[in-house]
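Fold it.
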Amino acid sequence: MNILSYQQKLNMKKGVMQRTVVCKDGVGRITRIQSRRVASMADPHVCAIKFDITPVNYTDTIRIRSAIDGTIINDNVPRYRQLNSKHLAPVSQGKTRNGIYLHVQTRQSKYQIVMNAKTKIYQQDKSIRPKKTVFQKKGYIAEIITLDAKENTTYSLEKLVSLFTSLDEGVAHPRKAGSRALAGIKSFKDVLGPNAPRLEQSLEKSRHSNPWRPIHAKSDETSYLSSSCGRIAQ
């Protein structure tokens, strides 16, 4: 796989990370992938990511895996690799009404951690319902989404995620709390907050971007931290 171009930007005004990658596979198919991701400042239990995927020069089947992975290990520091690097133990996982969930606990302290996720797919900004299957193994669960993609057509995937733990004050059931949190969120735009001018004043305090304004005011005039590179072989 060759990466033809890569660009990353941090929008300091809106608190959104943006990435654009254009890649080419071994048979010459070129795909452009744009993403925006946000950890909500209005609700610390919610985060979201949106991918815009465009098959630039081909028509074919595309499969997307949207997962929650509780099998991650901590082995980044070589001198600590002889120690136990598995800090999470699986408790339960499965399908929900609108997506999937994963429940794990920390091995020593037994803190409970529950993540819920749901995905929505759009074709040229119109909601579609492609084939979805669920793949899972112990501590890992994913939705496999199959698209019959057409050349130069953009398909968007929105993944909305909630995260609750047993340390959260006033939360007796993290899994139920996660389901409730996602129930009121319909789209990536909902996480960013209302944008209509008539809602600005009444819902100002709930906007994700509001807490970023003091940070943006102290940043440079471009509002972005960016990096880009040319052709990279992988």
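Helices lie at 174-183, 188-192, 197-200, 213-218.
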